[in-house]
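User: Some background: our group keeps a shared notebook of sequences we're curious about, and every so often someone picks one and asks for a predicted structure to add to the entry. Today it's my turn. The entry only has the sequence so far, pasted here. Could you supply the structure so I can complete it?
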Amino acid sequence: MNKKTSRRRRIREWGIIPGMLPAGNLNSITDVPGVEVGHSTIIRGEGELVPGTGPVRTGVTAVWPHRDNIFKNPVSAGVEIINGYGKAAGLSQIEELGALESPLLLTGTLNVGRVMDALIDYILRDNPEIGITSSSFNPVVLECNDGYLNDMQGRHVKSQHVHRALITASGDRVPEGEIGAGTGMIAFGFKGGIGSASRRLTLKDDSFHLGALVLSNFGRREELRIAGIPLYNLDLDFKTAGVREGQDGSVIVILATDLPLNSFNLTRAARRAQAGLARIGSLTDNRSGEYVVAFSTTSRYQRGNKGRLSVSPEQQKDKQKAEVSRGSQLLNMVFQAVVEATEEAVLNSLFMASTLRGRDGNEARGLPAEKLASSINKIFQD
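Assistant: Of course. Here's the predicted structure to add to the notebook entry:
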């Protein structure tokens, strides 16, 4: 199934540094304190597709803004829908209220309903008052289509897979490539999937982080750009997956920061992810689902009687910082961090993904990283 001939390396390990701002210690969304990410991967069976049975190449990825009961302690959030050809759940309430009360779950398209159901069960265990003495719960699930490699009709992500991703989430560097929700994804004609990156922001004596996590399943081979260099300018014979002719792809971008940004500025930040995607070669095609969710781990609410939300005492203490965060200089830095982290996260998803064969012998080839890096570094040296 997998053809791993050598350890996959992130783009920086090949000496190619996207952007100008410094990366966090992990160069991962988990550089933002409190953020944890978990995966559950399902790879089963080979050969001809038997709808409802397999082969299976899918999974689920969970992103926690924090573990302090997200339903009782929601965070400020914003949403940007770059192109709405998608089946995401739970975004309209975030747009309306500016608050995120759920971990963010990513999966394959037809798994969305089952993932929502499992997430609701999980949250109800710690919040039995939901729907009785408190408000309802808004589960957030985002998706991309993994049908080229996976038996989509089987909807193979079950509650145990969702719960495993939620329970095993950690603050370590995010595993990338063909893992979790990224298992069956393809980007720019190569194997895509999960990628992450971060930037460190310095304001006077304070240091903050902004991190990105992407689910990459988009892009045309001929449009791919790495460090600003178009792939077609490189004199290399690349074999790609040969898929998605006449179809468009999708991408999910999750942005996290420990800056106390409000929903308005988080939405503004989310809009800048499109510039990061464009740097790599996104054309925002007609049938692409491109969604961005941004949240602040330090801009929080508390859920009171009957589910009403109020500003948390911690956020009141940070009021002065929140005022500073609206300053033009810092917001410019935030926007730059969004562009750079989004770009690098997508590149990491490509560089870290290995060749994978799925249903009907369909194969998504891993990016020929060594050849690409050698050619790009040669251009820089010249």
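Suggested note for the entry: The chain has one domain: 23-235+245-365. The mean pLDDT is 91.
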